[in-house]
Amino acid sequence: MIQPPSWLPVSPDSDFSVYNLPYGIFSKGKEKARVGVALGEWILDLAAAAQLGLLSEWEGAVSVFEQEVLNEFIAQGRPAWQSLRKSLQRLVTEEESPLRAVADQVLVRQAEARMHLPVRIGDYTDFYSSLEHATNVGKLFRPDNPLMPNWKYLPVAYHGRASSIVVSGTPVHRPQGQILPAGAEVPVLSPTQALDFELELGYIIGKNSPLGSNVATSEAGDYVFGCVLVNDWSARDIQRWEYQPLGPFLSKNFATSISPWVVPMDALVPFQTEGPRQEPPPLPYLRTSGAFNLDLELEVALKPGELPESTLCQTNARYLYWNIRQQIAHHTVTGCNLSIGDLLATGTISGTGPGPSSPGLSSRGSNGCLLELTKGGTSPVVIAGGGQRTYLLDGDEVIMRGFAHKNGLRVGFGEVRGKVLPALEQPGAEG
Q1: pTM value?
Q2: What tens digit of pLDDT does each residue of 86-100 get?
Q3: Which of 74, 98, 116 lies at the terminal end of a domain, its last residue?
Q4: CA distance 94 to 90
């Protein structure tokens, strides 16, 4: 539905248009963190708006929006989310809006606010849903047979560490762990020399499912509140030594960064698109029919210290082989329960476009991590100023962005940023 323009000036290039209105948790100065909505360069303070009676149709709105996480708001359910969204669009577009009269009491500049982790995340599952990513990585180790036999039959995933999920802007110390040096037979404890990013999309669960029940693909959409950008930091050399037979552990558990604004699924409906053809057909419980992928433009930039940014990757979420409905159906087929605030990430999103093209020195491609972009660290990427990277160095800042645009509509996520700090001091030996 076409909306009138907001009376609050919003740049056409802003991720936070009136068609978006994403939710986040913010604070200013020493004030308590609370719920806000982004519009252009501003944050609409929902707690203040509720206190002024502007959200009177919401029972208990003041207490809901004074919370330091979105979980209580999310628990109100989809009809309540949609009702509030319509109210907010009306308040920010009507010329005689009561909100306009008290704008100085309810609007905060984003540049003056501090953003916080938007939800209390109880569980985190990371999938492996990009065929291009799985194929590219598989070729590094199994050139003749890159995909494992199960890959096209189920959405592969592992359970991540929720306690180390951090909001954009939180620096990340270089992790250390056991690494097996080339040619060695005994591992050493060392800071990773192969620190990587992974460009992902994350879905925030908006509805509890009972333990012992499963969620059908036809119902799975009801369980999603919104989306965030995800950087699933990875230590590739630690991962190589530890991943068999049970998969990632220390190589992934040290940090996962997410964007501060949760884009509601209702804002993304115009950008839904069909995913790639799935062959062979999935088992019946995983079959879907419809447009359940998202046409989202995604990119990764690297800012090394004081040097300008270099764009390393540009891709699109529409390429994902396994969609969120299939991920939820598979996650719950055993009876595993989902809870409000759980995070389900897609895994690295790589595209179908050409990858690095320069012999010996990789250029910008559609691959969503350095492992792919550099062919396992053998072909460096070129960055601004003539430098190059195989993996991340201390002082590097990784910046991920994503947005959708169509017929004059633009909905975006803003950014998820993280700067690499040196490793912490190694633990001393006992005795």
Answers
A1: 0.95
A2: 999 999 999 999 999
A3: 116
A4: 6
